[in-house]
Amino acid sequence: MKGKSLEEVHESIDTSQKKSLWKRFVAFLGPAYLISVGYMDPGNWATDIAGGSQFGYALIWVLLMSNIMALLLQSLSARLGIVKGRDLAQASRETYSPFVNFILYIMAEIAIAACDLAEVLGMAIGLELLFDIPLLWGVGISMLDTFLLLFLMNKGIRKMEAFIITLIAIIGGCFLLEMVLAKPDFSEMATGFIPTLPNKTALYIAIGIIGATVMPHNLYLHSSLVQTRKFNRDKKSIKQALKYNIFDSAIALNLAFFVNAAILILAAATFHKNGLFEIAEIQDAHRMLEPLLGSKYASVLFALALIAAGQSSTVTGTLAGQIVMEGYLNLRIQPWVRRIITRLIAIVPAALTVFYLGESSTGELLVLSQVVLSLQLGFAIIPLIHFVSDKKKMGDFAISLKTKIASWVIAIIIVGLNVQLVYDEISKWINTSNHPIYIWIFVVPVAIGAAVLLVYITIKPIFKSRIKVTKHVPHIDELMLTKKIPPLSYKRIAIAVDFSDADSNSIYKALQIGKKEARYSLIHVVETPGALVHGENTKDYESSSDQAYLNHYEEQLVAQGFKVSTHLRFGSPKKEIPALVNKAEYDLLIMGAHGHSWFKDMVLGTTIDTVRHKVKVPVMIVK
């Protein structure tokens, strides 16, 4: 499983066993729903409310255009994962240099942090509105989302998908009722599908909407989640998987479009219609809904949907963080550690913003986070288009000329809008700053560097005549099976024992491997408080009884003709076992696994995981 994306759930759903087409289709449904929650997260709410209150229905066309863009780009992302079995980050690592990949990784992490920031703030605002919990406390409570994700992943990807779909149903149901209460003007709504941008503020909001809708981290995530489905790798099965995933994406993303459009229409029908053009804060929107709609349930539904949106989108953001780290850097750490780091990256700026600038600043921060997401889009979209266009990589499943043209048009639109935004913002900063020299020294070079990187990742695959594929299993070419393979021989075998039921299996396996020709060492580490403090000078009851147990093991084995020695150590097994094994130069270390629950392993850690990284010899784990 080395090199597999999200390997804990990779190919965990076997679709090939489904006999009927309908059951097979249902088995493929799910990944796009996890993607769709990113299209209706609290960051979308901020941009949609700002757009609806300031410009009425005028920006509905931006939502529709964003949804069409998203549908095409997500289908390309799914195609990459289904055909090549690679997520977008892994494909980038195989194409670009380590330095460029590191920069792309940092930018992807910034995008995920911006997305997670919106989710943290949204969740905290929802808790404040519904339960009157202080916003700063709500930011802290959002840390618990990480443990919910761990629980869901432990139960399997299908359980996670069911949880997300339930939350989507809550969000959709709440806004359906809100729409009924708002009674929007359908004739005016229809004019919103005509493309217009009233002013530069509308451009800023439009780019925020695009950034909130077409999210870069969703492209990484989708290319990975589709790999949770196991199917035959023949051409017919791959075609079928692609078709089913297009349906999955179309259904899920259209639901997301309905939610986004409902938020913007709600803001237009209530705030803009009543002359409230400056409503950009989610809290203000919540407070004004009840008097404007004449129902106390309006604000409750709004807050409930906000909590559901924040809770659901946090799941996908933390998963995307794991995917980009493993894909770009080939660095695998414990998933719970990775997810806590992702959450902390978002919580710290959110808490600082609320603490120093007050709760009134959250709306601007949400819109800014979505603009940051939009600025990152080009760095994910352009490599994706290159990968799925490459016939060397994709074979018969490379995208058609029409799809390629449409994809590049979308990329040009997004990059063009972002270039315009960056130019306008930097110009404004230079003209209004008391010390413009700092803008020229710090901001302008970063913008130029980003532009150079964007050009590089655009032209690099075009002029690269031969794609060098990075091996996910290092040095596989060095395995020369044509040579004579020497017989396996272990002369010195160390066995870690803890006087539990696992010892018999460990010792039996060691004797089976080494037989009577090998020398065996039984190692036990005393972990009492006295042993941790006094070490070898410990003279407590447990250390003496442990030595007696070791002597008993030795006597039994020697009586059967085996060559055995014992070693009693004091302190932490995670330190003492590797120190002894490495010093004595054993050929093999055998350890017993106890089958702890995931919660115990997460809290207490496992000796096996630590020891196997520290010892210089092969480790066999016996269960």
Automatic annotation (TrEMBL):
The keyword Ubl conjugation does not apply. NCBIfam families: nramp, Nramp_1, PRK00701.1. Residues 490-623 form the UspA domain. The keyword Transport applies. SUPFAM superfamilies: Adenine nucleotide alpha hydrolases-like. H(+)-stimulated, divalent metal cation uptake system. It is found in: Cell membrane; Membrane. It comes from the Bacteria. It comes from Neptunitalea lumnitzerae. The chain crosses the membrane at residues 21-39, 59-82, 102-127, 133-153, 162-182, 202-221, 242-269, 297-320, 340-359, 365-385, 405-423, 435-459. This is Divalent metal cation transporter MntH. Its main location: membrane. Signal peptide: none annotated. InterPro entries: NRAMP_fam (IPR001046), Rossmann-like_a/b/a_fold (IPR014729), UspA (IPR006016). It is a multi-pass membrane protein. Belongs to the NRAMP family. Keywords: Cell membrane, Ion transport, Membrane, Symport, Transmembrane, Transmembrane helix, Transport. The gene is mntH.
